[in-house]
Specification:
Largest sheet: 5 strands, parallel
CATH architecture of the largest domain: 3-Layer(aba) Sandwich
Low-confidence stretches: 1-6
Structural class: alpha/beta
Number of domains: 2
Shape: elongated
Helix content: 40-55%
Number of helices: 20
Distance between the termini: 65 Å
Length: 476
């Protein structure tokens, strides 16, 4: 059978399947000795991975179940010295003092007072003020925290009622916060590998993980030197965009993200070779480097990727004053207007038009905005088909004569909605004008599906605002 992957997979070599997209992040954490937090349902190989990583590194691992942990389990039992002036600790084989790799499992079920005592271990590699000289890696794992208002229709397997959100300050000590794949996210082939009983070499047997870690660490200074100035601009821009998306980050996180991008790219160069693209490394570091990944409602990947792409484009066009001016405008619709004022070409304007449509989270707003842009650009622009097609589709719903023929249940919600719209139609004085007919068709085009989800009067007001914004005062 032909080899399926041309790149080295750290997790596959460790016998953990379906995690290849996380290989570079895991290697980056190891090379920088940065704390890492895994988030996922039970049975998703979080503990298995960490045990095999520590074994492949030939490191002494301390595996602590944080939900059952007492502080004495970490430091031992304090006893006074013979002189009664100081304490010494009577340690056990499980004490943390000689550990090289520490794994705090079930950290989201840990008592708050013990979480506070983990701060210096995770962030500073210190305990009771004493430096842990041998400790290198501090990793943790947790189930997704239960929401404040759990979905009663969810199954028990989907909601972990004992899993609490981490203290934000503790979570901010983890440069890498990684959601791991569950069963439904694995490919069919990876599912088969997970349950296969075929014997092969022991997991990690042929993996020279220490060599990979050393190679990655050696590349990090070179990558940092090559991208330092550009990366500074990118991080400032992307954090502003995340704040706009209600995902604010701390100054510490800005520092961590900068270094994570460099480390992830170095890791990808080691695993994939020189063809690894820096843009993808930047996106990966952002996807797995935010503390909000550990909240009960983690950010959607689409939101993070959109912020990344806009920040990447702004930063990449830093020398182009016109493009930078447009892309620094955070509102996607206003970017179209600004590009029009700056006399951008049809191709560039087409890209901004499709981005503006895609940025809307309301189908009603997309319909109204699409019609406004179609009317504004139909006579003076030769947009690309990728832009004209959605504009024409939205406009066709309104420009074609509209009528409604539905069987509505008496006293049902659609009947009440229709009566409200019908009353509005009868009260319209300007309905014989082209703009009045456009309003009428806009309302009818959304009945009943759109207006079950959105307030039709608010949507109509937004449509009017879009027409005004694009200078569509007369419709002929």
């Amino acid at each position: 059978m032909a080899e399926e992957q041309s790149t080295l997979s750290l997790t596959e070599a460790l016998g953990v399947h379906g995690w290849t997209h996380l290989d570079a992040v895991l290697l980056a954490a190891l090379a920088t000795e940065a704390p890492l937090l895994l988030i996922g349902p039970h049975g998703t190989a979080k503990s298995l991975l960490i045990e095999r990583v520590a074994n492949a590194l030939n490191m002494s691992l301390r595996h602590y179940n944080a939900s059952l942990l007492n502080y004495d389990d970490l430091v031992g039992i304090p006893l006074p010295d013979n002189d009664g002036q100081s304490l010494h600790f009577v340690t056990t084989p499980g004490s943390i003092w000689d550990a090289e790799f520490v794994f705090f499992d079930e950290i989201s079920r840990c008592r708050p007072d013990l979480q506070n005592k983990m701060f210096p271990i995770i962030h500073e590699r210190r305990v009771v003020g004493v430096n842990l000289g041998k400790l290198r890696h501090r990793w943790a794992a947790m189930n997704p925290p239960a929401p404040d208002e759990p979905d009663l229709s969810a199954t028990e397997a989907q909601t972990y009622f004992g899993s609490e959100p981490l203290d934000p300050a503790l979570c901010d000590r983890f440069p890498y916060v990684i959601p791991v794949p569950d069963w439904k996210q694995l490919s069919k082939q990876d599912r088969r590998r997970v349950i296969s009983m075929r014997n092969g070499s022991a997991p990690g047997e042929n993996l020279t993980l220490n060599d990979l870690v050393a190679a990655c660490a050696a590349l990090i200074p070179q990558v940092a030197e090559q991208y330092n100035d550009w990366l500074t601009d990118y991080i400032v821009c992307v954090l502003d965009l995340l704040a706009d998306a209600k995902l604010p980050q701390s100054p510490r996180r800005a520092y961590m993200l900068t270094r994570a991008v460099v480390a992830v790219h170095a890791a990808r160069l080691v695993l994939e070779g020189p063809e690894a693209e820096f843009e993808r490394s930047t996106e990966v570091a952002l996807l797995y480097g935010l503390p909000q990944n550990a909240t009960d409602v983690p950010p959607g990947q689409a939101t993070l990727i959109a912020a990344h792409r806009q920040a990447w484009e702004v930063t990449s066009r830093i020398e182009d004053d016109s493009w930078r001016q447009v892309l620094e405008e955070r509102d996607a619709v206003r970017r179209v207007l600004l590009a029009e004022d700056l006399k951008f070409g049809d191709e560039d304007l087409s890209r901004l038009v499709t981005q503006a449509l895609g940025a809307q989270d309301s189908e009603a707003r997309r319909m109204g905005l699409g019609v406004a842009m179609f009317l504004a650009f139909r006579a003076r622009r030769n947009l690309a088909p990728s832009a004209w097609e959605p504009l024409a589709q939205f406009s066709a719903k309104l420009f074609q004569p509209r009528s409604v023929a539905l069987s509505l249940q008496n006293n049902g919600p659609d009947m009440h909605l229709w009566n409200d719209i019908r009353q509005w139609l009868f009260e319209r004085h300007e309905r014989e004008t082209p703009k009045g007919w456009l309003d009428r068709n806009f309302v009818l085009a959304g009945f009943p599906d759109l207006w079950r989800r959105y307030d039709w009067r608010e949507a109509l007001d937004a449509f009017h605002a879009d027409l005004t914004m694009f200078g569509v005062d007369e419709i002929g």
